[in-house]
Amino acid sequence: MPYVNIQVTDENVTKEQKLQLVQGVTQLLVDVLDKNPETTHIVIQEVPVDNWGVRGNLYSTLKKQK
């Protein structure tokens, strides 16, 4: 039973985009690892930009600097 956790920043990811991620990752596991889609679980977690760090900074801070 594959379990995949996708974490993205909470920047307006639509329900349709999430569905595309779930469908695409599920199909990838079917194609590459011959996994059963009926027992494949995908979880999408949206992380606030204040809780995401990159290059030694908070992503929210870097985003404001642009």
TrEMBL record:
Entry keyword set: Isomerase
Pfam family, one: Tautomerase
Domain 4-oxalocrotonate tautomerase-like stretches: 2-59
Main EC class the enzyme belongs to: isomerase
Family to which the UniProt record says this protein belongs: Belongs to the 4-oxalocrotonate tautomerase family.
PANTHER family (UniProt xref): 2-HYDROXYMUCONATE TAUTOMERASE, TAUTOMERASE-RELATED
Name listed for the protein in its UniProt record: Tautomerase
